[in-house]
Amino acid sequence: xxxxxxxxxxxxxxxxxxxxxxxxxxxxxxxxxxxxxxxxxxxxxxxxxxxxxxxxxxxxxxxxxxxxxxxxxxxxxxxxxxxxxxxxxxxxxxxxxxxxxxxxxxxxxxxxxxxxxxxxxxxxxxxxxxxxxxxxxxxxxxxxxxxxxxxxxxxxxxxxxxxxxxxxxxxxxxxxxxxxxxxxxxxxxxxxxxxxxxxxxxxxxxxxxxxxxxxxxxxxxxxxxxxxxxxxxxxxxxxxxxxxxxxxxxxxxxxxxxxxxxxxxxx
Length: 267
Prior knowledge:
By secondary structure, the chain is of the alpha+beta class. The protein is built from 9 helices and 7 strands, in the order ααβββααααβααβββα. The chain has helices at 5-10, 30-39, 76-90, 97-108, 112-122, 124-135, 155-166, 175-184, 246-265; strands spanning 46-53, 62-64, 70-71, 152-153, 204-212, 219-229, 232-243. The protein has a 5-stranded antiparallel sheet with strand order 2-1-7-6-5, sandwiched between helices. β5 and β6 (219-229) form a beta hairpin. α3 (76-90) packs across α6 (124-135). The longest helix is centred in the C-terminal third of the chain and has 20 residues, at 246-265. The chain is globular, with a radius of gyration of 17 Å. Residues 1-26 have low confidence and may be disordered.
């Protein structure tokens, strides 16, 4: 849902992210081979999934595929809102009426104009980096200038972000901020509820991202969120690129989330 000019900028900007720390090391292994066979990604496409079962004692996500950086597209809007709420609290204030309205349409409707306004309010990439340091993200690099959709991230870093919102451990986000983000992610507009919800049987909260790269005509399709299935609560992040079309990418992401959650549940 991003402006096509983002892809033009991407041809001249290369953004790289660091490796995950031992505190949240990826649990990769034989499951990755089975995942790839089950998901059947086309040769042009690439997909990575990360899953954390909140009802188990382990704090490391299971990772399927290569945990390397992808463009965020609109999933970064969750990160932008988290940064905005931290920014407001640091200045001992609530969001203004305008900021609150922008936050609502940015998450519910994936509104890009609202995202740009809040991106500027947090100080663009440097502001995002400052917030992410506090949130525990270490593999996310903000997009250049006003191009928030070209932020680069990894699946495990998105699990860290989701953990700051939905997890049970300590987080710099206060309860009101966590509830605000989590609630908005359950109020996604019709037509945008695909993605990690494909593996849910009794509840979900999500944000999706989609971007066609004008240089290749290929699509970045991503989905992050919290789902409930089989009586367990999971944080899930699925990132993909190189898809021939948006429907192809959505189908790939949904195959990936169903496979990854199923394999994680069976461990």
